[in-house]
Amino acid sequence: MAVSGGASKGPRAPRRGGKRRPKVCFYCVDKIDYVDYKDVERLRKYISERGKIMPRRVTGNCAKHQRQLTTAIKRARFMALLPYSVD
């Protein structure tokens, strides 16, 4: 009788690495209430090399500031401060 679901390599190998640093919201730490769409250098940190907005689980932002960040990046793109895609 064949095993369904693919090849099994036995028990899972333990994961490597130590403790991960907890992600904190940059805007909450610096007590910045408003994400400014004109602050292009700061917004570029949250855009991937392919031009996509990085998700919250990667950036560590809180939900409030991630929403503001997304809106600010979209505004900056519309105002031609940031590119829509990277060539």
Describe this structure in words.
The chain is mainly α and 87 residues long. The chain has a domain of 54 residues: Ribosomal protein S18 (30s Ribosomal Protein S18), CATH 4.10.640.10. The model has no long low-confidence stretch (mean pLDDT 87).
State the end-to-end CA separation: 52 Å
Strand composition percent: under 5%
Radius of gyration: 19 Å
Q: Class of the domain at 26-79 in CATH?
A: Few Secondary Structures
Question: What is the overall pLDDT average?
Answer: 87
SS-derived structural category: mainly alpha
Main sheet summary? none
Question: What's the total number of strands?
Answer: 0
Instruction: Point out poorly predicted stretches.
Output: none
**Helicity level:** 25-40%
**What is the overall shape?**
elongated
CATH architecture of the domain at 26-79: Irregular
Number of helices: 4
CATH topology value of the domain at 26-79: 30s Ribosomal Protein S18
CATH superfamily grouping of the domain at 26-79:
Ribosomal protein S18
Question: What is the H/E string?
Answer: HHHH
In brief, what are we looking at here?
This protein is mainly α and 87 residues long.
Helix and strand layout, with pairings?
Elements: H1 26-29, H2 40-44, H3 56-59, H4 63-78
Protein name: Small ribosomal subunit protein bS18
Region (Disordered): 1-20
GO molecular function, one term: structural constituent of ribosome
